[in-house]
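We keep the chain:
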Amino acid sequence: MATVSIVKRLKPTEFEQVRQMVKEAIDLLGGPKQFINQGDTVLIKPCLLLPLDPERAVTTHPLVLQSVVDVIKCETKAGRVLVGDIPRLKLRARDVMKATGIEDAAKKAGAEVVYMDEEEQVEVAVPNGVVLDKTKLPKTVLEVDKIIYVPKLKTHYITKISCAIKAAHGLQSTDERAKYHREDLHHKLVDLLRVVKPSLCVVDALVAMEGQGPVYGDPVELNTIVAGDDPVAVDAVCAYMLGFDPLDIPTTRIAYSDGLGEADLRNIVIKGVEIGRVRRPIRKCDHNIEGVHPKIETFVGGTCVGCLTSSRGFIDGIIKRGWIDELEKITIITGMDIHFGHEPTGEIIFVLGDCAKAYGNKGIFIPGCIPFDSWTLGFEILEKYLKEKRAKRLDGP
């Protein structure tokens, strides 16, 4: 049977408080020496994603990362302890690690920082893969003896939750992870689990995210650390904590069905806090784009979840930034075989994704399958447009 530990405190804010939680969570599993041998080179992988303040609950909190490193360094005879991850959207790991506080936290605890996006990417075979028969991974991932995931617990547009199984996504470069980011994302993440099997997962659920995760959701205090050596069981427990049936999470269900881990809560030994005491149903993530805001006009055709989630993230970003207040109307067009009952009426029009290329003449076309650049180029274009609009308003008629 799989074992998962749960530790909860009343709003921990100091390093010593968080370290105590992390140590207790690992000790409940048998202690760090259960997972790390003398001389092991250990890679500790947080969730970086974007260069945002850790209080946004998008990335692993530096105190959790520092605590995991410190426990491994002090409580085991590990050799080298490394900290690394690859952010998304072609961002540089060295920039994001600094902005999120992860680099400082790693160095404070005595770890080496590695920028895996700058390393050689090595092609490896994926045994029994469904979507992947091979993939590329940073050289470090293949050379270390043990890997510890330290994910942030969040909601997610496609996978419903982002936790231990999805952590492997951050081991791929943007080009690799962008290849399968539609409904096939679920199988791809499970395929990665066939190649990279963490020795331990320590989940940062101090402040989780609800709503429009993994970026535009809202922080929610859980004050909890979850740990286990079976990422499927860890995800099952975390999903239940957030109010889901664990088997409603596609990655968990697939991995369980394929025999890669345990997802039946009846077969998971939970140590520490009783799971019912930490269950806190959260607002789920919605990736549909119709009717989100009265100032946002949408035209959707045969659209896969990839373009929908990318478009919804673009919309959520516009709203979160407060830009929607400065617009009369914005139009989003995505998908193929779209039927236009009337012509688009937005003052600025975006056409998102390769399937909508035929309608590119109706507005600003951002290509891609999925159109990741809507979250970079799209925001840059809209920000420039609004600056020009403000300048015209100040200049007067």
About this structure: Residues 38 and 77 are 5 Å apart (CA to CA). DSSP finds twelve helices and 16 strands in the chain. The chain has two domains: 2-278, 296-395. The longest strand covers residues 200-210.
